[in-house]
Amino acid sequence: MMQLNAWLQHLQLNADAEQAYRQMLQQLFSALQNLPHPVVIGISGAQGSGKSTLAALLAQMFSATGCNAAAVSLDDYYLSKAQRRQLAENVHPLLAQRGVPGTHNIAQALADAKAVLAGVPVALPRFDKALDEPAAALPAQTLDILIVEGWCLGVPAQTEAELATPVNELEAKADTDCRWRHYVNQQLAGPYAEYWRLMTPLIWLQAPDWDCVCRWRAQQERKLWQSRGKGMTEAELARFMLPFQRLTQASWQLLPQQASYIIALNKQQQPRLMQ
User: Fold this and answer.
1) How open is the CA angle 72-78-80, to the nearest 5 degrees?
2) Sorted alphabetically, which InterPro entries does this protein's record hold (predicted)?
3) How far apart are alpha carbons 229 and 240 in whole angstroms?
4) DSSP conformational letter for 137
5) For 2-45, how does the pLDDT look when each residue is reduced to its tens digit (9 = 90+)?
6) Closest CA to 45 of 272, 256, 268, 251
7) CA-to-CA distance for 103 and 83, rounded, in angstroms?
8) What is the pTM of this model?
9) Which of 125, 251, 255, 266 has its CA 20 to 30 A from that of 46?
10) CATH assignment of 4-10+36-263?
11) What are the DSSP calls for 74-131, one per residue?
């Protein structure tokens, strides 16, 4: 695990949380080691909860045992700005922003997961968040294990009653007729639900509350500024987070029943594996 220390630095954990993370990681890997191959493993969790770090570490650990393993983010399947502008014109202006179900190339995500399960090579995509555009895909490879991480993995569609009540000011003012919410929900009920079903098992990183999610996501944005010299301002980030609030909050009610493994995080991101 030569890269473990480097990856843990991304999480900026204190000493106790880092020790807890190492223990959780070993427990989780031990539980996953005997999965039949090929397999698609899902990692769900709110922004800033450490999904990409966990996915990369697990892929590294599986690779060290001789498996062909790789990680991809649901974010890597985001549509281009031009494609989202078209959605914004045809469906709802809020779809210009990447994030919610309906703003991904979900057909490609499904095809890639099915290809892995069929033993067919896949060229996994990449998305450049600083440019807000797709980047060059990785070379095609045949995988034993594909780890998919994403902020809303496993979250099912909501009821009409749940959709009717706005969860924040954005929904109340920019989606007065619920058209955006209904479109996102239709996507969840259709191709996204099919995608979720391919992820066995599903791991959920359970954040404590919405305030923590926003704080952790702000830490990520600061790192982006430091590494790339560009990113969102504080006001832009606050606005950016609003479309994610509904499904993130829904996950706390729904994913305890959906997830195979739950990693509960406290406010210092100290993890505890629950099964």
Assistant:
1) 135
2) P-loop_NTPase (IPR027417)
3) 19
4) P
5) 466 665 666 666 677 778 888 999 999 999 999 999 999 999 99
6) 251
7) 9
8) 0.92
9) 125
10) 3.40.50.300
11) GGGGBPPHHHHHHHHHHT-GGGGSS-STTSB-HHHHHHHHHHHHHT--B---EEETTT
